[in-house]
Amino acid sequence: MAEFPACPKCKCEYTYSTGTLLTCPECFYEWNPDEEIKMEIVNESSDKVIDANGNQLFDGDTVVVIKDLPVKGASKPVKAGTKVKNIKLVDGDHNISCKIDGFGAMGLKSEFVKKA
Question: 55 and 40, same structural domain?
């Protein structure tokens, strides 16, 4: 079995060859191992959080929910148009940690909010 270098984008060690290119099975990044890899790819921030409109979000931003979101264990959903102040960005599937009036602390996915 041939030994291939780890993916320069996500550091996955299970890369494989697709002819002249190497491919990462986790992030699907393809690169030519014979070419010098640009440092911007290695340093590309995977922790950039983008809202539904493509705007980058930062800690402390205010966002607006763009669709009704059901809440497990609650009798009512978070309604579209709800303003959420002072968000905190976290790692994970629900990449926004916040407090919503009437619901308390919860996690939101950035794809369901827009920057206010």
Answer: no
The three-state secondary structure class of 14 is coil
What total number of domains does the chain contain?
2
Tracing tokens 């270098």 back to the chain, one arrives at: 5
Q: Which residue type sits at 58?
A: F
Nearest CA to 116 among 70, 77, 58?
A: 58
- The SS3 call for residue 16 is strand
Domain extent for 71: 49-115
Cα gap 105→50, rounded to integer Å: 21
pTM of the model: 0.60
Domain of 34, CATH number, reads: 2.20.25.10
CA 94 to chain centre: 8
pLDDT tens for residues 62-114? 999 999 999 988 899 999 999 999 999 998 889 999 999 989 999 999 999 99
